[in-house]
Structure formats: C-alpha cells, structure tokens
Amino acid sequence: MQSAKCALLTVFVALLSVRCGGEIVGVQEITGLPRDLTAAEEGLIQSDNAFGLKLFQEIASQEEAGANIFISPLSVAMALGMTYNGAAGETQQAMEETLELQGLTVDEVNESYRGLIDLLRNLDPSVEFLLANSIWYREGFAVEQDFLDVNREYFDAEVTALDFASPTAASTINNWVREKTMGRIEEIVDDPIDWLVVMYLINAIYFKGDWTFQFDPGLTADGPFYLASGGQVQVPMMTFGAEAEVRTYADQDVQVLDLYYGGKAYSMTILLPAAGGDLDVLVGSLDSERWQEIVNGLSAASTDVVLPKFTLEYELEMKDVLAALGMGIAFTDLADFSKIRSSGGLYISKVKHKTFLDVNEEGTEAAAVTSVEIREVSMPPTFVIDRPFLFAIREQFSGTILFMGKIVNPVAG
To answer: For the domain 39-387, what is the CATH code?
Structure first.
C-alpha cells in the first residue's frame, strides 16, 4: 500500500516503449494517494486488513484440503459494516471485535468508509474499479430511518423498498448484482425469498486491471504445476519473455512477487512458500504484523516471471466462519439489531459471498458480492383451538384411553 503519510502527490503520464508482451503505453503513473489519510482512515484500513487476514485463515481451516479459495475481505467488511450500523448492545460489541474495529467510534468507521470508497473509486483511471452498496427491505417493514440515512450517506448505499412476495423480487436484486459485477456474478439472492426475510445488505466490487508489464501471449504454453499432494497437472503458463520491473521479497519462509497493474496504484502480491515449505503453514502465520513485514520489505527488481493462466469461481456461506471469529450472537434470536427496527426481533440468517477471478496475459478481472440476509425471529407457533374438535384423556405409558369426547359448541353444556 502506498504510504499513508505522503502529502499531496503528483500524477504524471509516462510515455512507454512498446513490445509484444511488454509495458503498456501511455498510462498515468500513480505515485501516491491524492491526499493524506486521516488517522481514522488509517485505523480502518488496518482493521479491515486484520479482519481480512483472520477471515482468510478461518476459511482455510474450515475448507476441504486442496480447495482453491478466493475472497474479497473488503466486500465482506463493507456489507457487515453497513449491518454494524444497525447493531446494539452485545451484538454490536461482538461485531466490533470480529471486525477489529476496537478503538474506532461508529462515526469514525462510517466517515472512514466514505473516504475510502471515494479514494478507491477514483485512484487509477487506467484500472476499472467499481464499488457499490445497496439495501433492499421488505415493503411495509418498519425500518429505522436513521439506519437508512447513515448507510446512504457514508456507504453510498442505494436503498429500495421491495415487495419480497412478488415473483420478480429476487430477480430485481440479482439484476443489480449482475450489473454491478459486469455480468461476472449472476445472482446472490435465492428465489423465492423466504417470508421471514426482511432485508438484504449487499456489497459488490468489480476490478479489471491490465498488467503494467504484460505477458506475451505467443509464449504461453502448457507446463507443470506441482500439487501439494505430490502430483502435478499441466496448465497454461504465461511468461514475459524478458526481464520486467517487479518488486520482490524473500526470507527463510517465503518468496514474494509483486506485479503492478496500470499506473502502479494496484498490484497482485504472490506469496510462495520457500522450497520445502507448506502453504497451510504460511497461511496460518500470516497475521497483520507478518503481512506488514512482507509488504514493507518489497523492493524493486527486474526478472522474468512464469505464472499460471487460470479462472476461478468461489462461493461460501460465511455463517460458521464468522461465528467462529466471535460474532455468533448475531446469528441467533439473542441478536440485537434494534437500530434497524426499534422493536428488535431480527437476526442475521445468512452471509453469502461469491467471487470470480480471471488471470490472463493482459491482466486480471475480479468480482465479489457479499449479501447479509436479515430475518425476523420466528415466534413459537400458537395452537389455536377455535373450531369443533375431538379430544381424549389417556394414560401415557400403557396407552390406555380413559375418556374421549367431541366438542362442537363449548357453551352448549
């Protein structure tokens, strides 16, 4: 990440030489953020990164061995951040701890998300970055206006009251998801919508960036990728075909490669366990301190690169993962979301996360959607005997029927 302490920094156009699979031409090189981050914004970014790393670790621990994983911690954090505005009491405290927001007031969290959204949307004109938030609530549901207003103002959330009983309700929400992810994620809401669901809080992120130094398509060829199990598979392997400007870091546990996109504001950071190392051990060691050590240790280098060309789709229902991280109360009837509805009686029923990733010679396309589903706590059913009925008085253990009767009019005597 660019230094948060830099003053107003310049953006300039670098006219670059062209070769097949070479450095892209005429992009604006981004030399830093357009303004200083506030202390609260720095704190929020640290919190989001800490949450994202422990979220990834927990998912990795619960996933099947050998499974690919691809998540957007920012998407999950933003969807839960909107929901956090509706939490109170122990539920708010549990979410605060899970999201690593201790030390930040709710106002600081909201104001910092507003600033971060604006920065990310406009940082690099050569990279397509779309970020959208929305809240959909059941028509007639008595939602607190302050909750909607805060999320509109600070998360730029689109707010819509929708007839969830309509046959087109789910498709209306899913069309929004499809539009905001450029068609890469088709749906996030199940059809039909359950009658107890009262709200969806949804974040969508779309990223498309060309490599600053592009791979030569003419040199892509199948090559071996060595599996942790000891086997290997043949995959298309991309290469620059020449040395290119990258950043690297290495120590006894890890080798790191940083590949720039566009004007160098964004990059893909690839962590490879040192020879003989275990990827799961590396994941388990990757806390905030270790991550920062690696990022701060990156330095400029010139090298050729061989990287797999691949596409990945991933989805996960995050209830168990988030409960394991400490916010289990939010998924129970003990949840307190009285800032969404003053009378309470609401809980999170699902947190669905879907992602898409395409890595090719030109660059990377990625999309993510997170949906927080809010339901009403279902009250125990009431057995109402308000019409003619039969009844029996019996002994439970032997099954002996002592009396039987039929009541057609309780006042007839």
So the answer is: 3.30.497.10
